[in-house]
Amino acid sequence: MMTTDTSSPLHPTAPVELVLFDLLTALLDSWTLWNSVADSEALGRTWRMAYLKATYGCGRYRPYETLVEEASMEVGLGNHAAAELDRRFGELQPWPEAKAVLESLKPHYKLGIVTNCSERLGHIAADVLGIPFDVVITSEKAGFYKPDPASYRLALDTLGVDASHAVFVAGSAYDLFGTAKCGLPTIWHNRIGLSAPEGAPAPLITRPTLETLASDLADMSSWR
């Protein structure tokens, strides 16, 4: 049975200066592309979950493309599926409201990405959004996969922003383990209704879409 840590979530110190995002789940609908390559929603989800398990358990960086291929082989899709996913990575689509939300935030905050991906594919995916991010940190660049705190810390250090003046928008509750170690307040964009893993620290807020993100961030100035 999955349970969630009910301890008090980390709160930002007003004003929020930086909003960091998970890329492949919080901003982009990567599930649909994986399902398309697998030619089955059930098999696509099984493949993606196998890959996610590999990245979250990996720690120190191993090539992203290798982990995707290993997960593809594990679920019986063969290495051709991994090659097709690589070829089609630029077909990733943002969640319907993602671009408009980012455009509304850009004049008010620094924006960044922290993603479990290679440099090559991470930047292909980030470019899909058409937004000039202030920082894009991949696991390859940081040398570790999330939820190891190295990636989040590198994003904060690169922009010179303290964690108390930043917010992370997670696509997976596994991010909460890493952001908690950094003192980085986190909103969970739980788009597909997944259960949080056992012992996960509590997020600031859990939302099913990004539609309220701008107002949520604005409201945080009154939470002190």
What does this protein structure show overall?
The protein is an alpha/beta fold and 224 residues long. The chain folds into two domains: 18-28 and 93-222, 3-Layer(aba) Sandwich (Rossmann fold); 30-90, no CATH class. It is built from ten helices and six strands. The chain has helices at residues 30-38, 41-58, 64-74, 79-87, 98-105, 119-127, 139-142, 150-159, 175-182, 213-219; strands at residues 18-21, 110-115, 135-138, 166-170, 186-189, 205-207. InterPro entries: HAD-like_sf, HAD-SF_hydro_IA, HAD_2, HAD_sf, PGP-like_dom2, S-2-haloacid_dehalogenase. Keywords: Hydrolase. Pfam families: HAD_2 (PF13419).
Give the topology, please.
Elements: E1 18-21, H1 30-38, H2 41-58, H3 64-74, H4 79-87, H5 98-105, E2 110-115, H6 119-127, E3 135-138, H7 139-142, H8 150-159, E4 166-170, H9 175-182, E5 186-189, E6 205-207, H10 213-219
Helix pairs in contact: 1-2, 1-4, 2-3, 3-4
CATH topology-level name of the largest domain:
Rossmann fold
Mean pLDDT: 92
Shape: globular
Q: Mind telling me which CATH architecture of the largest domain this is?
A: 3-Layer(aba) Sandwich
Q: Could you give me the name of the CATH homologous superfamily of the largest domain?
A: HAD superfamily/HAD-like
Question: Got a strand count?
Answer: 6
Q: Which parts are unreliable, with pLDDT below 50 for 5 consecutive residues or more? A: 1-6
Strand content: 5-15%
Cofactor: Mg(2+)
GO molecular function: hydrolase activity
InterPro entries: HAD-like_sf, HAD-SF_hydro_IA, HAD_2, HAD_sf, PGP-like_dom2, S-2-haloacid_dehalogenase
Organism: Pseudomonas petrae
